[in-house]
Amino acid sequence: MDTLQGGQFGLVLQQAKAPLIVPLLKFLVVVCLGMSVMLFVEKVYMGIIIIFIKLFRRRPVKHWKWEAINDDVELGNSAYPMVLVQIPMYNEREVYQLSIGAACGLSWPSDRIIIQVLDDSTDPTIKDLVERECQRWASKGINIKYEIRDNRNGYKAGALKEGMKHSYVKQCDYVAIFDADFQPEPDFLYRTIPFLVHNSDIALVQARWKFVNSDECLMTRMQEMSLDYHFTVEQEVGSSTYAFFGFNGTAGVWRIAALNEAGGWKDRTTVEDMDLAVRASLRGWKFVYLSDLKVKNELPSTFKAYRYQQHRWSCGPANLFRKMVMGIVRNKKVSPLKKFHVIYSFFFVRKIVAHIVTFVFYCVILPATVLVPEVQVPIWGAVYIPSTITLLNAVGTPRSLHLLIFWILFENVMSLHRTKATFIGLFEAGRVNEWVVTEKLGDALKTKLGAKAPRKPRLRIGERLHMLELIVGFYLFFCGCYDLAFGKNGYFIYLFIQSVAFFIAGVGYVGTFVPNS
After folding, report:
1. Is 483 a known active-site residue?
2. N or C: which end of the chain has fewer CB within 10 A?
3. The Glycosyltransferase 2-like domain covers which part of the protein (predicted)?
């Protein structure tokens, strides 16, 4: 009976193949090839621009007016603008001292700077630790304010918005923002504020991130490669061509007047930083990116923390695109070319197409063509374009060139979550506004390992198994076996290796394991 049913199912599948499956798969291949070409053109365009920038040494200090702020005998410290430094945090036991200490160590006249710690912590012990740290710095003469609220409405955006309402903020001209794991160098304000002081049309000065734990594990090295490309190429190109790029949410200084004119902080998406940047840009404000100014920070080193972060970073932009696209189209203050750049390049290609094509094409459609040999993918789409895109991505981190294969496999695995998050954002599904603060370990891992904690934590099946990765892994493995037995494309080599990557992620054997206390 089972044999008969299996044969009937096979017969139905075979009959549906020619009129339905083959045309549908051919259509999807064409769509994916189109998206691949869009991404390829975008990457090549940015590559050409970055070469031009490097060859002609187009540095911000040459393009914009910049003069050091010096002491004035007559004016005294009033020659320096008032600066607010905001540090939003939430249960940051491991890193709160680092960020507060670095902010209090900024070189700037003490009567012209206010440090504002916005503590949304729900753990009373951590709140007490943070408050005492603020009191310790206040006793040293630092103008530091410890601010709390009775709810977490709006998460980070809500905290920043609430922080701007305090009366003492009215005397400030600029606001620097640092997340809880960021440690700016003492000269940070001296290098950024002059751009804002001497150029009235600049709203934001953004610094680059420098990762203190990039060598912690293979996963942090993979993250470094992706983020280095973002900072080395994407931010640099945006700053040099359209004076626009996405605010990274930290390690930047805003002109408070521009921030207010743009409508202030909004919590309608999980990317409040990008939301503010787009709104300010549509008001005509310009941004400057300083690639040579680096601020130390920490990469998420556990797979769980990284998955949550990538969900937020992928879902938020897609949801913001949905909310803002028509407003951008109707905007009258910026040129059609800039509107095209924001809608097509910044949002559609980089935030939507890049995620979807990586997973759908290379992890779903391409393997499916093995099972349906009537559908062929041209070699330029299967090999040449992805190879070129991969090599262009590698320019940001030359030291990791030997890890390129691992990076490709890891990015394909993560594209599963990014694609899912992108669709959640586009269609405003259930987890669209989910905000999970990225866990920072600071020195916690070293401390626990130093205390001779067990090398392997107790296995918790529910926490370690990720069913989506396992399902995709089995699908790729099956396609690989079929290709090895019946195919002619030789895709099985890629399919087997990629399936192993999904299996490794599926059993949670990625990133750093934090031993139990």
Report:
1. no
2. N
3. 174-368
Residue 234 has pLDDT above 80, yes or no: yes
CA distance 487 to 481: 9
The candidate with the shortest Cα–Cα distance to 442, out of 212, 225, 101, is 212
Q: Is the pLDDT score of 137 beyond 70?
A: yes
How is 37-91 classified by DSSP, letter by letter? HHHHHHHHHHHHHHHHHHHTT--HHHHS-------BTTTBGGGSPPEEEEEEESS
Residue 451: the pLDDT is: 44
Q: Is 267 a catalytic residue?
A: no
Q: How is 145-170 classified by DSSP, letter by letter?
A: EEE--S--TTHHHHHHHHHTTSGGGG
Give the span between the Cα atoms of 492 and 349, in whole angstroms: 29
Mean pLDDT of the chain: 91
- The rounded Cα 72 to chain-centroid distance in angstroms is 41
Sole residue written with tokens 């601010």: 147
**Whether pLDDT at 442 is above 90:** no
Q: Which of 181, 228, 267, 273 is catalytic?
A: 273
Q: Which fold has domain 78-302?
A: Spore Coat Polysaccharide Biosynthesis Protein SpsA; Chain A (3.90.550)
- One-letter identity of residue 101: G
User: How many CB atoms within 10 Å of residue 70?
Assistant: 7
The domain spans of the chain are 78-302
Catalytic residue among 119, 120, 181, 483: 120
Strand, helix or coil at 285? coil
Residue 230 CA to residue 370 CA, distance in Å, equals: 34
What digits encode the pLDDT tens for the residues 24-43?
A: 999 999 999 999 999 999 99
Burial 45-59 (b: 16+ CB within 10 A, else e): ebbebbeebeeeeee
